[in-house]
Design goal:
By secondary structure, this protein is α+β, with helices and mostly antiparallel strands. It is 13% helix and 27% strand. The protein has a domain of 67 residues: Thrombin, subunit H, CATH 2.40.10. The strands form two sheets. Strands 1-2-3-4 form a four-stranded antiparallel sheet, with no helix packed on it. It has a three-stranded antiparallel sheet with strand order 5-6-7, with no helix packed on it. The protein is elongated, with a radius of gyration of 27 Å. The mean pLDDT is 84.
Length: 139
């Protein structure tokens, strides 16, 4: 009878250890990566899924766009009544909401990159506009 009790006790302890993992303690390590100082009080913050863009809506109607290194890319003046913010995973579509009159504005954002091509060979007019199309949905 003693062996059965010991085996049962061991099985019960193993079952409790696997079924109750929430009772284990763990440490959390953290550090401040960046700090963004805004001119006015931030109302809402949204980060894209890839983490490359951070949108901050501030009092007075400013939507600030920051890159992954917390550098300001651009700021957009928006309706000062806007108080909520949401963005799609890429940061190409941003939604601003006004909770007082139930309006939502959808902003379509295109990012324009500046390239330094001074001294590079070219064919055609040197000041001609260039459009770079990226096809990323091929399977």
């Amino acid at each position: 009878m003693r062996k059965r009790t010991t085996v049962f006790s061991i099985l019960l302890i193993l079952l409790a250890a696997t079924a109750l993992p929430g009772l284990a303690t763990a440490d959390v390590d953290w550090q401040t990566r960046n700090t963004i100082k805004t001119e006015k009080t931030p109302l809402a913050i949204q980060v894209t899924a890839d983490g490359n863009r951070t949108f901050i809506l501030t009092e007075g109607g400013t939507l600030a766009i920051y890159d992954n290194d917390a550098k300001l890319i651009d700021s957009i003046k928006v309706d000062p009544a806007m108080s909520t913010l949401s963005a799609d995973g890429t940061g190409d579509r941003v939604f601003l909401g006004n909770t007082k009159d139930n309006r939502v504005h959808e902003l379509l954002i295109e990012y324009i990159a500046q390239f330094d091509y001074e001294g590079s060979p070219y064919l055609g007019k040197s000041g001609a506009p260039v459009v770079l199309a990226v096809f990323s949905d091929f399977e």
